[in-house]
Amino acid sequence: MSQSVFTAKQNDAQPSPRKRQRARKACIPCRQRKRKCDVQFPCSACSTYGYQCQYPTDDGPSAPFVDKSHASHVSSNSPTSAFGHSPNKAAKIERPQRDETPESPESAVDQGILDPVKARYMGLHSVMAFPRNLGLEFQSANPPRVHSFAWNCGIRPEENGSSHINLKDLISREESNGYLKVYFETVHPVFGILDQEIFSRTADQFWSEATGHSAFEAILAGVIALGSFFSATLGHPRELEIVQHAKSILEDPVISRRVSIDQVSAWVLRTLYLRSTTRPHMAWLASNIAMHLAEATGLHHETDAVVLTTTDPSSQFVPNESGREQARRLFWSAWMANSMISYEYGRSSTSLNNITCKQPSLIKGDYTSLLISLGQLIPRESLDGGPDLQHTLPKIQQIPDDHPFISTSKADLTMSLYRHHRLLKRPTEKREILQIISIGNVATQAAYQLAQENKFWWNVLCTVFQYVCVLLAIDTSESLAQVQNAMCTLENIAGQLQTHVSTEAVNTLKILLRDSMTKKKQQVQLLEAADSDLAANMGTEAGEMVNVDINWDALLDPWYVPTLLPQEFSIGAGPAAFYPTV
């Protein structure tokens, strides 16, 4: 940038006679040290203290981002991640340089700071950032780095890394290729957390080179495990060992204390596998870990919402628009999984402060954004005061049923909303009941379609089971008319699965169905007993009952008049005392 440009900017920033204006572009050293910059090159402060004067190109929210992938310094013996960076380098979406001085106390509370070398994000008020802030305030030539100074007494060494088997010893490259194909055909369209091209390139590097264990290996193992799972009976015989291998890498002390976006991706994959195979508690834990790692890497913030700790070009990795879009998809997919699992399970989800990450774009053939839009409809109980069926159900219906998993997920949210609504003893309008039935019927067909395709997502069985429960709970003629079809679908899916869980689900519903019928029979018997007592009082001398034809529509009309009743029940007759009069 030429000096004439800086001179022009300086002229633009000249103070008016009445109001002092702030220079729009301070140099980077002055920003870091919170000094007034005269926007010269070099500026007077840098000339006085011997700093290297340097200006950013642009620091506004609309600053153009360029691809600087060469700055990531990918080593020859370390595979790049699914985002195209080295796992041990700047595994973070770089932010444009901003002034480290908050403009107001209110903004400082929510503002964060990011170390682009170690991909660590934290609040500006944190114990790790405070020494550096003091150094900048004291105009130190070399302010302290963001570091956990005196976090503990340091009388014990940190844990050593764990020993791991090699993924290549569990599965061959040829075998893995088939499962990768299944994953990108089945899982990727609705959870598009990986860039397929970059992932494939990094996987090729993993198989062709001798590398140490990294978070990307956990991603690769997670993808293979999910591909194996959705291959149904054709799954790999060592699938559980591959899952355990990914877990051991993620829990390795050496790897886990070096936060990276790859760890977020790997934990999201683990969440999906656990949600599909094991108990709710395990999936809920994994989803919360994924969210905490997303915060630790700053994924919850947009590109202009954080402060950088360094301006060293060698540590910066500024992705293009595609990279930023992929980061948004990863964060919101992790958020969606955590929110949905927590809401279904009845536990708290991970709540992050001041989320500035934008919603991902809608891409043809990719339904991730639709799933995220569905997650946005999950109520926050502490803020919304519970579910609002009247306004939420139409929004759920507006989300297109472009993929069977989207349809079943819509029903999952609908059933969760109804369960919460019913717990609050709120009345359910007929229109809302019809909306629930409509969403549930579409989901039942979608679940059957997925079962026929051997794509056994967790809600293939769960959605239909919960739908029948909700139909029995609503207990109206409209809802009970749908029970037969839903039960037949569930039995067909269970017959295809032939697992303990599916058999247990069918038997449980049969018990509920029979108990519901028994309760209704008892109620009918009570009505019949009441009718018998009434007949004894209304009978003739011969003890015979009078066959009375009552106009029930008129009787239940609050505006009826006595002349609408049969003559036997006219006002003045003895039995008329049982009926109201106008």
From TrEMBL:
<dbReference type="InterPro" id="IPR052478">
    <property type="entry name" value="Metabolite_Synth_Reg"/>
</dbReference>
<dbReference type="Pfam" id="PF00172">
    <property type="entry name" value="Zn_clus"/>
</dbReference>
<keyword id="KW-0805">Transcription regulation</keyword>
<feature type="compositionally biased region" description="Polar residues">
    <location>
        <begin position="1"/>
        <end position="14"/>
    </location>
</feature>
<keyword id="KW-0539">Nucleus</keyword>
<keyword id="KW-0479">Metal-binding</keyword>
<dbReference type="GO" id="GO:0008270">
    <property type="term" value="F:zinc ion binding"/>
</dbReference>
<feature type="region of interest" description="Disordered">
    <location>
        <begin position="64"/>
        <end position="111"/>
    </location>
</feature>
<feature type="region of interest" description="Disordered">
    <location>
        <begin position="1"/>
        <end position="26"/>
    </location>
</feature>
<dbReference type="InterPro" id="IPR007219">
    <property type="entry name" value="XnlR_reg_dom"/>
</dbReference>
<dbReference type="GO" id="GO:0006351">
    <property type="term" value="P:DNA-templated transcription"/>
</dbReference>
<keyword id="KW-0238">DNA-binding</keyword>
<protein>
    <recommendedName>
        <fullName>Zn(2)-C6 fungal-type domain-containing protein</fullName>
    </recommendedName>
</protein>
<dbReference type="InterPro" id="IPR036864">
    <property type="entry name" value="Zn2-C6_fun-type_DNA-bd_sf"/>
</dbReference>
<feature type="domain" description="Zn(2)-C6 fungal-type">
    <location>
        <begin position="26"/>
        <end position="55"/>
    </location>
</feature>
<dbReference type="GO" id="GO:0009410">
    <property type="term" value="P:response to xenobiotic stimulus"/>
</dbReference>
<dbReference type="GO" id="GO:0003677">
    <property type="term" value="F:DNA binding"/>
</dbReference>
<keyword id="KW-0804">Transcription</keyword>
<keyword id="KW-0862">Zinc</keyword>
<feature type="compositionally biased region" description="Basic residues">
    <location>
        <begin position="17"/>
        <end position="26"/>
    </location>
</feature>
<feature type="compositionally biased region" description="Basic and acidic residues">
    <location>
        <begin position="91"/>
        <end position="101"/>
    </location>
</feature>
<dbReference type="GO" id="GO:0000981">
    <property type="term" value="F:DNA-binding transcription factor activity, RNA polymerase II-specific"/>
</dbReference>
<dbReference type="Pfam" id="PF04082">
    <property type="entry name" value="Fungal_trans"/>
</dbReference>
<feature type="compositionally biased region" description="Polar residues">
    <location>
        <begin position="72"/>
        <end position="83"/>
    </location>
</feature>
<dbReference type="InterPro" id="IPR001138">
    <property type="entry name" value="Zn2Cys6_DnaBD"/>
</dbReference>
